[in-house]
Design brief:
about 400 residues; alpha+beta; FAD/NAD(P)-binding domain; 2 domains; 22 strands; binds flavin-adenine dinucleotide
């Protein structure tokens, strides 16, 4: 078959290799001058290419589309990804949290391996070419358009990625291809991204990282998401860091201004236990200042903010705190609240959540249910997962599902 793959990112490069190995005549269009511009920046330049977990354990980290991905992940999982890259001559290692990286710690090794194999498999590489449309005939794909020119193909694979980090070439073109061929798009939103807040007092905390805290997101009185104990960071616009990025993936389809975040600064103990601890500390401190009491409970830079929020002065005497003050302090340390104004934009989002409606795509081979021989793979689909190598594995599993089912 004469097949066109649009996009030389993670999913498109692997799919093109697999299709060519299966004997198809493959053309890969990539708008950049080389493949893998986004791959290059993955894992802070080290490329966390998969997570060495499979089956249910893997799917637990998928936020949207885990049912859809069940079949493709079963047939091409992280073990297959590792075998694929090792067979291309890239030795791999497994780090904390089952994260898989090249031994060299260089994403460029992954890209070079893909580029060599594309050449070896004689994939026709069309760099610097932007596909502008897809055309169909009698309910089947007929080809692609470039600069007004129609080029016929028997099958077309859309591997154009999402909309995050647009400078890498992922500018959301695939959504337009899907819409123009009659598909629904679930609204794309930034995911694995920091959260902007309106609480001016916390901006003094920029750069402060808190370890062993829990962050929850509430809409009115309903808890939508509660993180695991982990690390977060105060930034120039609000909050970020690992547990906030994960939180964003679960609540980013909500209206941001409806959301409040609560930081539990003492997740290991209950509010009552915290009140008892505060009382014990006060008994030891006697007439010393509230500031000294707070410094025993919090990072120094947070003490004034907490005392201001409680209407106390750092110079007040600790042993003059009323029972109500002690209860309010314990409550605030368990529920340090922030009002959300927005999620950071696509250009700071690790991935895009939303995309081609999964109801219109077959999970077995990624073929559109509306247009024959049209396929969608990778981040352009309405699938997304947490950090840890899961998103690249989704790109590879969906690529393999597509490639192994085109005859
Ligand atoms: C900073 C950062 C770090 C990340 N780190 C990790 C990580 O360590 N592990 C992990 O699992 N995931 C990571 N991700 C996510 C991961 O990179 C993506 O999920 C993955 O690259 C998606 O693959 P894809 O093939 O769907 O799209 P992409 O890799 O985005 O590739 C799409 C390609 O299509 C091309 N293209 C688009 N439109 C057209 C067109 N009209 N014509 C021709 N070409 C076109 C683009 O130029 C691009 O090269 C990271 C993302 C970012 C932004």
């Amino acid at each position: 078959m004469k097949i066109c793959v649009i996009g030389g990112g993670a999913s498109g490069s692997v799919c093109a290799i697999m299709l060519a190995r299966n004997g198809h005549q493959v053309t890969l269009y990539e708008k950049n001058e080389k493949i893998g511009k986004k791959l290059y920046i993955t894992g802070k330049g080290r490329c966390n290419l998969t997570n060495a977990t499979t089956g249910n354990e893997f799917l637990k980290h998928v936020v949207h589309g885990n049912k859809f991905l069940l079949s493709s992940e079963t047939r091409f999982n992280s073990e297959d990804t590792m075998a694929f890259f090792e067979s291309l001559g890239v030795p791999l290692k497994i780090e904390r949290g089952n994260r898989v990286f090249p031994v060299s710690d260089k994403s460029s090794d992954i890209i070079s391996a893909l580029a060599s194999e594309l050449k070896k498999q004689k994939v026709q590489l069309e760099f610097g070419k932007v596909v502008t449309g897809i055309y169909t005939s009698n309910g089947a794909v007929a080809g692609v358009e470039l600069d007004g020119e129609k080029i016929p193909y028997d099958a077309v694979v859309v591997a154009t990625g999402g909309k995050s980090y647009e400078a890498t070439g992922s500018t959301g073109d695939g959504y337009n291809f899907a819409l123009s061929t009659g598909h629904n798009i679930i609204k794309p939103v930034p995911s694995l991204v920091g959260v902007c807040v309106s609480d001016l007092d916390i901006f003094a905390l920029q750069g402060l990282s808190l370890k062993n805290v829990v962050v929850s997101a509430f809409k009115k009185d309903k808890c939508l998401y509660k993180s695991e104990i982990g690390e977060m960071l105060f930034t120039d616009f609000g909050v970020s860091g690992p547990i906030v990025l994960s939180l964003s993936a679960f609540v980013n389809r909500e209206e941001p201004t409806d959301l409040k975040l609560y930081i539990d600064l003492k997740p290991a103990i209950s509010q009552k236990e915290l009140e008892d601890r505060i009382t014990r500390d006060i008994n030891v401190l006697g007439a010393k200042q509230v500031g000294t009491l707070l410094e025993g409970l919090l990072p120094k830079s947070m003490c004034e903010i907490v005392s201001n929020r409680l209407g106390l002065m750092l110079a007040d005497k600790a042993n003059q705190l009323t029972k109500e003050n002690r209860e309010r302090l314990a409550y605030l340390l368990k529920n340090f609240d922030l009002s959300v104004t927005a999620f950071e934009g696509f250009n700071r989002a690790v991935i895009t959540s939303g995309g081609v409606d999964l109801k219109q795509v077959s999970p077995k081979d990624m073929q559109s249910k509306l247009v024959k021989n049209l396929y969608f793979i990778g981040e352009v689909l309405d699938v997304d997962a947490l950090t840890g190598g899961f998103n690249l594995q989704i790109a590879f599993s969906t690529a393999a599902a597509c490639a192994s089912n085109i005859y």
